Structure formats: C-alpha cells, structure tokens
Amino acid sequence: MVFASLNFLCVFFPLCMLAYFFAKDIKQKNAVLLVFSLVFYAWGEPVYILLLLLMSFCDWLFALLIERHESKKKLFLVITCIVNLGIIGIFKYGKFTLLNLQGIFGVPEKIPNIILPIGISFYTFQLLSYVIDVYRGDVKAQKKYGIVLLYASLFHQCIAGPIVRYRDVELQLLKRQPTVNSIHEGINRFCVGLAKKAVIANMCGKLFELFVVSDSLVNTPEAVSVVSQKSAASLWVGILMFSMQIYLDFSAYSDMAIGMGKMIGLEYKENFDYPYLSRSVSEFWRRWHISLGTFFKDYVYFPLGGSRKGKGRTILNLFVVWALTGLWHGASWNYVLWGLYFFVFIALEKMLFGKALQKIPVLSNLYLLIVVYFGWVLFKFENMSVMGAVLRGMFCLNKNSASDFETVTLLKGNLIFIIAAIIACTPLIAFISKKIKFKNNDKRNFSTAYGVLSVAMPPILIVLSLINIVGSSYNPFLYFQF
C-alpha cells in the first residue's frame, strides 16, 4: 500500500496532469483521462478491468435502447438492473451467501474464494443511476460508449466515491475549462485531504490498534482474548479513535477526489458536512456519505412510496433502505445489524421524538454522538464474538479493570494529537481559514505573510504526508473494501 501510494503521488498523477494539460482539445483530454483511469484500475486488478468494461458497455447499450424504444423501456430497465445487481451479487455477496447456506444446510462442501473487485459498489451505483435517469427522462442517453466508460471509471473517485450522478457531470464531461482559481482550490483541497489521511487518520488507526487490537487480528478468534484483557478506558478511547479514523479517512478521500476534479474543471458534489455536529441520527445521515444517502433516497425510498403511504409503509420503506445500506457496506451480518441499528433510531425520530430533539441543542448532539459511537462498534467488528467482548469490556463485564497504567500513559502521551484529531472533525479550521482569507481579500488588509503561507501550504502538506507514508507501513483506505 505504501509503494502504491508513492507511485500514485510521485509518478502516476503528475504524468496524468502533464499529459492532460498538453492535450489540445476536450476529445484529447478525455482520451488522456480514460487511458489513465483504465491504467489506474488495471494497476490493482488487471483481470477485473474487463468487468468494468463489460458493465459500462451493457449500461451504455441499454440506456440507448430505453431511449429509442418507449414501449419496451421498462423491460430494458429491468434487464439492466438484473445484470448490474446480479454481477455485484455474485462478486460481493456470493461467498457470503454460500457460507450461510453451508452453515444451515451443510452444502456446498467447498466455498470458492471470490475476490471482490475494488470500487465495484461505487461504479455499479453510478451506472445504475445513469440508466434509471435515462429511463425517467432526466438525462439523454449518451451515444458515445467512451464517455459512459469515462464516467464510470474516472480514477478520481471510482475506487471509494463519492458516488457521482451522470446528470451532475454530463455537460462537464463534454465541455469544461478549469480556471486559475479552480486549479488553485483543487490543489489546496487535494493537499488537505492527503494530509488528513496520511497524517491524522492513519495515526488514529495506529492508536486504535494500541488501545484495542491489531487490525491483522481484529476479526479472528484470537482477538477475543486480547480484547478481554483490555481495560474499559482503553476500549472506550480505542473506539473513539476508530470513530475519528473512519470519518477522517473517508472524508479525506472525498477531499482528494473533489480536489483532483477541480484541477481539470470537474465539479463533484460534497460528500461530508461535519456529521459529528448533527443533532439527530436523521441529520447525521444527511451529512455523512451524502452521495450514498441521496442514492438510496432517490432510487429506493421514494420509488417505494417514501412517507406518502402511511406510518406502517413508511416504517417498512425505512427498514428496506437501512437493511440495504448496511448490506452495501459489506457482506457480513454485522453490517446488516449496523444498518438496522440506525433504522431503529431514525424510525423512532420520525415517529416519536425527532421534533423534540431540535429544542434541546446540547443534549441532542450528545444523544447523536452516543448512538453513532456504539454504531461504530457494530461496524468495526465482523466477528460477533469480538464485538461482544468489546461491548462487555467497555462496562467491565470481562472482569477487566476500569483503567490501567498502560492506558493512562498512552493517553497522556497522545493527548495533544487526540485533541487535534477532534478539532479536525469540526469546521473550526475551515472557519478560521475562511475568516483570514476574507480579511486578506481586502487589499487594504492584505498580509504578505498570508500570501506566502497560501503558496507554501500545499507543498508543506505534501511533504508531511510523504514523510508519514514512507515512515509507516500502516496506510489503508478503509472504504476500498466496500
């Protein structure tokens, strides 16, 4: 992972940008992007690039058929959904299904090892949204297969999102012109995301391993004994570290994707809006992984009837959406449990106390943080035995101590970093930066120091990130697995 990150930052991306800006027109620029995107995807999984090519071709073809044959467009849409969902079902949920059948019925005797293609959840949803939007008449079917393939495979976000709607980038794929300002903003956004990932998120991940259990053991039977010996304080702080890691890691990738898009004139929508400041679970999910939430809302919840068909149907629709949301994140029962856990709170808020939460600002935010905090326990541990050991240990039910010297020492040694990580999960830094920028936009108040800092900050962040990447073997992108 370290070698791949360095190759991307020092070789692949600079070469792509160099070739892109030397390309004469939009056709050549799109060709450069497509070639580099396919190379990027094939770099990690040479065989599965054929899957991406096939799915893109099928959706391009069926979108054209839907537009040209009004009387049969529903049939073509159904076939498209069967093809896309069938493929992701085989690769993402085939092994999971067979394991459950084996556990219940004892067959099959041998489970094939099905490798999950990276990014399949993201590009499948993008392609599906494109075909459905053509069916609804929201966009015109794209006549050029290469444009659809480019849309599905753009290396900026094809691995870990955000999920981009074709209707949001349709015109930009065909005509775009980055400005000096957008390039500058893109570079800054990319560098901030890179530092957020390499410097802060990775360190949060290391601390989780120290406070709870190593990621190499996290879902193994051996982890139960390791976790059971941890103090309650160690487990509480460890889950806090994971809570920050997963936000900083995933939002960092979105920052980098948005930044790379801006550099070439593509505008991707925001995927996070400081979700930990929310005052309800419903609000949290309007601000966390926004592109996934809007996908399920527009293509599942509303078509099922939303909240228009009575309370009973509303609850059922929410149940379906959150079961699918959990399952989308991974082929394991803990993800389904995680999704249904949030379903319970969202249903309760919708039917009982959602409006009351808005009247108690501090308590409502505390309620949200507690709910989400325990939700991450369900999310992190696929092994139910390990999950149970963690939950019991947090309340000293493993006959473990409330705290210990090792935990206190580790906490004291990393307290400044933990405070910095908490601040990074809030809009405080962005707010201060915006205020300084606004003040310096006034020529009468322009600060030379600010000008020098704005120019120097991107390379400083890149150097810090590279130092952290080179000096650490821990450099995962958590959402690659989804």
How would you characterize this protein structure?
- With about 475 residues, this protein is an all-alpha fold.
- The chain has 2 domains: about 180 residues, no CATH class; about 300 residues, no CATH class.
- It is about 75% helix and about 0% strand.
- It is built from 20 helices and no strands.
Q: What is the secondary structure topology, with strand pairs?
A:
Layout: H1 2-22, H2 26-44, H3 49-68, H4 73-105, H5 120-136, H6 145-153, H7 166-174, H8 180-211, H9 222-228, H10 232-263, H11 281-287, H12 290-304, H13 311-329, H14 333-357, H15 361-380, H16 384-393, H17 405-413, H18 415-424, H19 428-441, H20 448-470
Helix pairs in contact: 1-2, 2-6, 3-4, 3-5, 3-6, 4-5, 5-6, 8-10, 8-18, 8-20, 9-16, 10-15, 12-13, 13-14, 14-15
Count of individual domains: 2
User: In terms of structural class, how would the helical and strand content be classed?
Assistant: mainly alpha
How many beta-strand segments? 0
Report low-confidence residues grouped into runs of 5 or more.
none
Taken from the alpha-carbon principal axes, the silhouette is globular
Main beta sheet: none
How much beta, percentage-wise? under 5%
Q: Calculate Rg over CA atoms.
A: 24 Å
From the structure above, extract its key features:
about 475 residues; mainly alpha; 2 domains; 20 helices; about 75% helix; globular
Short description:
The chain is an all-alpha fold and 482 residues long. The protein has helices at residues 2-22, 26-44, 49-68, 73-105, 120-136, 145-153, 166-174, 180-211, 222-228, 232-263, 281-287, 290-304, 311-329, 333-357, 361-380, 384-393, 405-413, 415-424, 428-441, 448-470.
